[in-house]
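The data layer described in this paper is built around a simple, fixed record for each protein. Because each token names a local backbone shape, the row as a whole describes the fold. We quote a single record here, exactly as it is kept in our systems:

***
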Amino acid sequence: FSFSWQTTFQDGGEEVEDGAVYNVTLKKVQIQQAANKGARWLGGEGDQLPPEHTVRQYETSKIRAIKAGTLEKLVENLLTAFGDADFSYISIFLATYRAFASPRAVLELLLDRFGNLETSSHGEVANLNSLESEMVLRAEIASVLRAWLDQCSEDFREPPDYMCLLKLLDYLKNNMPNSDMESRVQNLLKQFQNQEVEAVDGFCSTSSSDLVDGEELEISNPEEFSSFQDHVVAEQLTYMDVMLFRRVVPYHCLGSIWSQRDKKENKNLAPTVRATITQFNAVTKCVISTILGTRELKIQQRAKIIEKWIHIAHECRILKNFSSLRAIISALQSNSIYRLKTTWMCVSKDILLMYEELSEIFSDHDNYLTSRELLMKEATSKFANLDSSEKENQKKSQKRLQLQKNKGVMQGTVPYLGTFLTDLIMLDTALQDYIEGGLINFEKRRREFEVIAQIKLLQSSCNSYCLIPDQKFIQWFRRQRHLTDEESYKLSREAEAAADTNILSPKSQKSMVKRISTLFLGTDVFTPPKEQPLKSSPVGGSSGESTDSASVSSCEFNHSETEDVCVTPVSSPEDPLKKSSVGSDKGYDSDKGSISSDKGSGSSKGSIFDPGSGSDSGFMPTRDSGSVPGSAPRAQPVYNRQSEGSCIIRVSMDGLHASVYKSILITNQDRIPDVTQRALLKHNLEPDAVEDYELVQVISEDKELVFPRDANVFYGMNSHVNFDFILRKKA
């Protein structure tokens, strides 16, 4: 027989039920069969039809995907999703439900309301007199629980009582006694309890930096650092990054979860994301300390250390470790390192070219399209795909890559987590949690899952790494004393005096100086005195760039609803595309370290965490996972661009926290009182004080637009400059 299939999808509209709205898609499958091969099957004698004749059959099925619903309906849909052909629903729900419900609430609904064989009103098994119906329900419940334990076992880690796990165990003993599921839950409970005991026992003897008793933090010895081979340093940084990234709990990355971390009772919220931030900052601070920490270094010696870090960054690229790669490049683009023009002039041309190629990976062109495409291209590839425009670098890259291949061990991919946090933050800002009628907007969760699925894919790829920890390097790395921003800038000024405008500076990669922006929050950022902007730059750099445009400071990832960001220029006003938004007005906390830039004058346009800026295509990820075929996504609002009657603006409070911004979604119906009230709420201020404030749009350093009392913000704002606003108390 000769068959061919052709599948098409058609929008079937919506179906509304009590407490739920469903998107309907009609799936039409056309099956073609050669008639001369199947005439007998069709009832014919011999080959009665011409050989070229074909018979077409059509089969149409309906796919129902829940769009919005009450929590009860969403939980019930876990049991019916497969029947509706919504095969990804369970995974999407489990990955995102923490944004609108607790594990206990979901478990109680699942087991008490829908899983109780005596009282269940579940549609498929309404007649509980049937043994077959009971078996169907038991199988559905078991399938959901199995997926829950497989994909999100961390949801049940609730020391010291483990109420959800005990409730689940009790249910299994009563309804599925002696099952594999019961044994699995018992083992998971023991595992959590043992890990809790180990954590308590080791608490007193383990510090945040994993130092051995008696050791103290120290400034790096250049000779000791030079003794580590470049590839060893890269492998050890990758080893640490892999261990942390594999432990990231995906739902910790959701904007609505991350938003709660500012509350006092949530200081330990999302620890897996905080750990990656701490490591990223540790790498960046280590780079700066090794370059500036020793005053006695000569310019050539300092240049050699910069060259070594560039080589280490290149080794990270070969290992597909984009996290430490970005951390190193960020440090080299920090204020205190970037301004060392004489030192950079001593860096060899080949290595500078290598540095520029590595920096270009994170170009902000088209919503950081290069890094996004490269990341997904290499997500499941065995080895890095290395290309270089410089022949010598190409030879070195291929040689190192061949050595990796000869070992016969595949590599995973460690991403820069901020890329995904960006998308999740903007999704959380742009899409509503609830729709009309108070129904949970599950379409928003489907969009978030597209990002979560990429994180999970990369976590899975990290299992391919086979790296052995080098305790000598790890201990050296852990005991490094990190310089504060003020210390590093002071040492930088001691190493090289104020910039000579006739001396060339290293090329400024606009993608890297805009590296960490609206997700970060910290304390006490040091702002060094401004130096004169340069008139030229070496190695292909753009003219008019400011030497002290960006620096590394300590802060913390921030979420979408309370998005904090400092505005820092990375170029002269003549080049608005080379401006960044980074940092915050609060300084370093050893538990919450992160990367930001020093506050400066000017406005920002585009950043690592402003995906909408500089991109006509918007920030939203594609709908190629966890979505329903045939449902085209609508354009969503983004920062710095008005689209379909809405956009995202950033509002700061005039005065003490003038550099901390909050993202606000506005529409063409919003007037000044509405926007002012939402901004006050975002800044944790009393919303009733609307009459005491005026809203101002920052046009430039010396110009601003003050809105009248009842103005329409969407139509009244200047759409040709940054969408940055200030709330100022009326005189």
About this structure: Confidence is low (pLDDT under 50) at residues 120-128, 202-209, 499-633. The first strand starts at residue 3 and ends at 17. The longest helix spans residues 180-203. The chain is about 40% helix and 10% strand.
